[in-house]
Each structure stands twice: as C-alpha cells, then as structure tokens.
Design brief:
By secondary structure, the protein is α+β, with helices and mostly antiparallel strands. It is built from 2 helices and 6 strands; from the N terminus they run βββαβαββ.
Length: 122
C-alpha cells in the first residue's frame, strides 16, 4: 500500500518527467509511512527540485493522510541525501549495521524520520 507521485520539471515550454517520490508501506493504524525519492537525471540534481518534491510529499502525508511519522532508510555514505533529508526536518533515529550487501561489501543504513509535531510545513 502506497502512493507514488511524479516529479516533473519545466524545460522551456515543455514538462519533463525527472523522477518519483512516494509514501510506501502506509500503515493507518500506526499512522506512519516510508518515504522514498528518485531523480534519475543528474543534470536535475542540486536545483531544489528534490527538496520541493520532498516537502510536498511530507505535506500530503501529514495534512491529507493525517500521518504521525514518516520515515526513510538511507545508506550511511550518502552524505548528500542525508544533508537534504536533515534540511527538510528528518532526524536520525538509528543505524542498521551492515544491513545491505552490495558489490561485495556490507553497508550501514541510517533510519531517519520526521514526526507531524516536528514538521514545519512548506
């Protein structure tokens, strides 16, 4: 159970699909969901589009779905992602040690979340 939203960018007079954001594993009993985002084309990175899409997704989760907690998982070495998540209100909850095996090695994964009571809105 989840909701996926498209991220489109204006390029001249056209709109281009550049990625997706979403709330996944929505649990209406505990009022929480897992956040995810993907912007595939690197030329659209560092333009504030991911931040705007993240804020809109959080707004949807907290205001429309009445969620209490939105969480995510991020590789410990994804410093850009961690900084971006902190900038919109996510805080680190913990570390899943060596939780992912990829390309011949294990990676730690951070658990981050933002609570409705902490969220500042768009």
């Amino acid at each position: 159970s989840g909701q996926v939203l498209a991220i489109d960018a204006s390029v001249g007079t056209d709109w281009v699909h550049i990625g997706n954001t979403g709330l996944h594993n929505i649990d209406m009993v505990t009022r929480e969901a897992e956040f995810g985002i993907f912007i595939g084309e690197k030329s659209y990175w560092s333009q504030g589009l991911g931040r705007e899409a993240t804020l809109l997704t959080l707004k949807h989760g907290f205001e429309d779905l009445n969620l209490n907690r939105i969480f995510l998982f991020v590789f410990e070495n994804n410093l850009r992602g961690i900084a971006a998540y902190k900038a919109v209100g996510f805080v680190q909850e913990g570390i899943l040690r060596e939780a992912i095996y990829k390309n011949g090695r294990y990676y730690n994964v951070l658990v981050m979340s933002v609570l409705h009571s902490e969220w500042k809105g768009c």
